[in-house]
Amino acid sequence: MIKQTFLYNNLDDLDLSMTFYSNQNDSSTKATLIYFHGGGLLYGTRDDLPETYCELLTKNGYNLLTVDYPLAPEVKLPTIVTCLKEAIDWFLKNYKTILGLENSNYFLFGRSAGGFLTYLLSARHRFEEQKGLISFYGYYDLTDPTFSQPSGYYNQFPKIAPLAAQGLIQSRPITEVSINERFSLYLSGRQFGNWLSYLVNTPSEKEDFSLTETELTELPPTFLAHSSADQDVPVEASRIASNKILNVTYEEVENLPHDFDGDITKSEGLQVYQALIAWLDKTLTST
């Protein structure tokens, strides 16, 4: 597996980069997965997908392009979405000349908050080259009361007062910060029900960044995965979506944490990625 880094844009003086994972033995790949990481939009890094899965995808003919985006609350959702639109545009413009690809077929792939971004961009910045979307434990509706109410799960942990958490906010935009450095900001937001205030400029923007019923039915072929015991994003988010999206494959695992694929010692994660590859192959042959 080869890893290359490319710059796709700048935000002020902040570099926005991508990592391109490809198989060194094969130039005729089937499609590229453009990947958005999770972290509540407040923390994380583009290269958080376990290497086991990166190798599995590339060996089966699927490149990965993992994308930086500026984190909230240093910027808000409109800026994040604009940057990711630019990333997709960069891929479509440069797939051949810079990445050396024979085709521009792509899927959007996100985990958790990255799944949310995948839904949003599939509905509102879609091109014919996009063959489908993949959301692992993601969500599409910021008006869901779960996100604006104190979380029973997160309130089991010692309280982190909003003012203390806000001390972690930096004075200029950033694209990555580790969970250890900034989870407290997300934790506090979920404990006090104010997480969304870090993402949107006004309460009404929650609706602006939620998919409508019509948008759900118009999504491209979709692969969803979620754990029945998800303590962070309710499994209902994917269950409801799987009933409303017209062309959908849904894999539900039992009694594992939110990011069930993060522990590569668990067989369930690998099984879901193998199901994903089968779905990718089938989707490409039927389009």
TrEMBL record:
One of its GO terms (molecular function) is hydrolase activity. Keywords: Hydrolase. Residues 33-260 form the Alpha/beta hydrolase fold-3 domain. SUPFAM superfamilies: alpha/beta-Hydrolases. Pfam families: Abhydrolase_3. This is Alpha/beta hydrolase fold-3 domain-containing protein. It comes from Enterococcus ureasiticus. The lineage of its organism: Bacteria, Bacillati, Bacillota, Bacilli, Lactobacillales.
